[in-house]
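Our platform keeps sequence and structure together, in a single record for each protein. This encoding replaces a full spatial description with a residue-level series of whole-number codes. We quote a single record here, exactly as it is kept in our systems:
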Amino acid sequence: MCYPVTCRRHDSSRTNDSLRLFRVDSFFWEAIALFIVIFHLQSSFQPGMKLEVANKGSLDTYWVATIITTCGQLLLLRYCGYGDDRKADFWCDVMTAELHPVGWCAQNNKTLQPPEAIKEKNSDWTEFLIKELTGSRTAPANLLEGPLRGKNTVDLIVVGCILEVRDAFEPNVYWAARVQSNIGGRLCLSYVGLNDPAYDMWMFYLDTRLRPLGWAKENYLSIKPPTGESMKLSSEWTEALDEATAKALKSPLPLEVFKDHADLHTHSFRPGMKLEMVSPKEPFHICPVSVTKVYNEYYFQITVDDLTAEATPTHVVCHADSPGILPVQWCLKNGVGLERPQGFESQDFDWADYLKHTGTEAAPDVCFPNASQSRGFCKDMWLEAVNPLQPSELCVARITQVKGRLLWLRLEGLTKPLPDCIVDVESMNIFPVGWCEANGYPLTHLQKTVCLVNGKYCCSQLFINHRCFSGPYLNKGRIAELPKAVGPGKCAVVLKEILTMLINSAYKPGRVLRELQMVEDPQWNCQEETLKAKYKGKSYRSNMRIVRTADQVSEFCRRVCERLQCCLNLFGPTIVSDKCPENCFSQTKTKYTYYKKRKVGRPSLGENAQDGDMTKPARRRKKRKAIFVQKKRRTSIVGYQATESPQNESFEEEDRLVLERNPLEWSVSDVVDFITSTDCASLAKIFQEQDIDGQALLLLTLPTVQECMDLKLGPAIKLCHQIERVKVAFYSQFAN
């Protein structure tokens, strides 16, 4: 399953996406990392696909290559014939490289011949290609040529596209639906022939109910309009369908959209079996349900148990992997309350008595192969979730408990609060923090009523201005990943959260922790808070006095920024849009030295650090005097220089890059020259062999480096450190 963490469109109607903070800790960042791993949007190209690509060393000749991995619109390719040998792997940009579908050379009378390096490895290359291509998956032509070239799967679904949607109550019945909007893969659909927005549906594009146009007919399934929605004549429905189909066939939705759909597994349920399930109508509790119909080996019907005479049955179509279905006794084993069936006389529900009373059997555990997967979610993680009673609305949500594969979510910001809603870990209605902002979709406003209890001790939103100068201590790339605003809430809570974010965004968190200890004023009304930092496996903590009243927040923020030698507007009550009043956009780490002239003492740092523990401050300053010498190393290869920053006074010295050229413009040779100039010079050959230029360099991450360069963890981390230096310099000098 995939969810986006990529920037797309801007929507002026987007509401405030900040977080109101009452209890947000390191789980916030763990949740983001978790979603990035689980919900990363995949490229339309997949590893193992074959295509034809120009030969590097032979003009006007081509050869078949295999996609090894993808990174956005970049493909790592290997010519067929190299086997498992990675030495000739190379990167290319699908938007600029000469790539063609298999068979293109034959159709255009182009020469297909292997690279010179492997020409002698096989005596019959024609026979080799026949074996290599038999049963393989080729890259679709529409992704290599034309308007769809290089697009992600989600981007292929445009407004007006037609799909077929399975009926909610009859698994063998389909009807066409038109895409009204596509928000990062979350589709708003309307049935063809039914133009009432009240009946629009929201589904993620991977929902198994969605199929390509014509799928029902090809599989001998029924095509029927939705029932009970309109009094239209049959001929009117047919006319609307024919008209929509004719238009859709002129520009059909690429089948690549459905390549990531999960295959349905066969089930083992039989009519009459009992189980537990998250209530399909009100997903705030779990209730007993029964299997009332089996359609085929894939689909069955579940009905919520209701023993009252006047009950209106609640049915839902399920398959083996449907979210929210659980074995009997699951609630008892996990300490969760089970809703008593309506009309069941006994006040204390017991499964043994209930099965005996109804003369039924429990569905065996073999029917629930994945009942305990939690996917790494934890209590107090934050995410964004669909309001189950208003599918068009997305809310900030906090996980209040995790039981097996179920999450209990508290939706923030609702006018009328709801009980904690229950979702499956595989639900397509949960998204990572920042998803709404990235896709230009409004996130429900957070209510400010809590802050009105005592306005003196509560502050409004504090903004993190990503474009402002971040100073020598903070990593601009990490700052860019922080939310744009924090609060409203209690002053001390909001400020502590922002300070924790800044510490976690530092090159050397321990150093920032030390600097923050020095921010103090005897006139302030403060409370003591414990701040924590981790660096190179060691944990540090220190007590800091944080202001409690709203009238002192602005000055406190200014003092912190001054202490960290960053722009005074990096965070605080002022929001910076295009231009900072401090004119910090044009500054670099070597020029923005306004605060460096001040000499300050430093308290001790550690578990038992106390206020005033600053023994022999003069001696410490004298020792540091020699370290504050600025050193520069220059090279004429790609135009970059390294400088030492005062941030490293008590930690290991770390060179800072100042680039004279934008790394996005670096050629492969420039990248190789840079790597050669570092302590990873032995790896420079790999960059040459894989044609990694500046753009590709900035996209490399630790997992990519390990996988594509076949490096062990140690050398990979060492290399990524050098790449991170380039990224930091890029963010600070050119990203604006």
Remarks:
- Confidence is low (pLDDT under 50) at residues 1-42, 448-454, 588-650.
- The first helix runs from residue 27 to 38.
